[in-house]
Amino acid sequence: MNRRYRKTIIAGNWKMNKTATETKKFAEQLKAVLPKAKWCDVVVCVPAVNIQAAVKAFRDMRVSVGAENLFYEKSGAYTGEVSADMLKDLGVKYVIIGHSERRQYFGETDVSVNKKVHAALEAGLHPIICVGETLEQREMGITMELIALQVKAALCGVGAEKVRKCVIAYEPVWAIGTGKTATAAQAGEVCTWIRTTIRRLYGARVARSVTIQYGGSMKPSNAVELLAQPDVDGGLIGGAALKADEFTAIVNAANQD
Ligand code: PEP
User: Fold this and answer.
1) Residue 202 CA, ligand 1 centroid: distance in Å
2) Per-residue pLDDT reduced to its tens digit, 48-66
3) Do residues 1 and 254 make contact, with C-beta atoms less than 8 angstroms apart?
4) How far is the CA of 14 from the centre of ligand 1 (A)?
5) Which of the 8 DSSP states describes residue 49?
6) What's the topology of domain 9-254?
7) Whose CA is nearest to atom 1 of ligand 1?
8) What is the DSSP letter of 11?
9) Which of 186, 214, 238 is nearest to 13 (CA)?
């Protein structure tokens, strides 16, 4: 982490978990254990149908609400989709874009990720852009090329001022929901590479201001080590974000003086 130049952000990704009633209950549990997060921002990304309940429940807790996806068109005949403006209007601050599960199961591509990033920024949302390699790609030795390509594609046409509003989440696909965590060195290496890629595109000042998270089986037992990496500025957390005590322990790891 480097708090001098950029925000530390701990974000939960609930995926397709919890009802609106359970959202309210989770907020009450979190309120009982979450300390004032002085050194990091706390975000909870929830299913679209729970956004209203989450915004209400987290209102007085300094916890921002995020969405897990959006559609890039402003409005129209796109049955079942949700636009960036709709999310913004509900009080959403962050939106996950390009999560590997969306790439794997819902046909998300680097092109659609880029369109969604533009839509999010235009609406005043902070995109959390997910990039990451599969195990096969890592074993083929193409991780760095692939990550650079995903970052460049996601940010294509995005100006320097807007890039500062983006968060990049390095999420190795092989570490998501598998219990396998990248070692701190592996996570640190790729996060540093992401910053190098941004520096080559936008220069050093912009690159050092962008928050880069690690995601993939982050939990209380490994958070301190992962967050100690100089270019790991927070975490995107799936499984461990569903339990108030585990999520709080990760926030505490990021919130140390
Ligand atoms: C995720 O879904 O973004 C994630 C990192 O999941 P998990 O923490 O469960 O691996």
Assistant:
1) 29
2) 999 999 999 999 899 999 9
3) yes
4) 9
5) G
6) TIM Barrel (3.20.20)
7) 238
8) E
9) 238
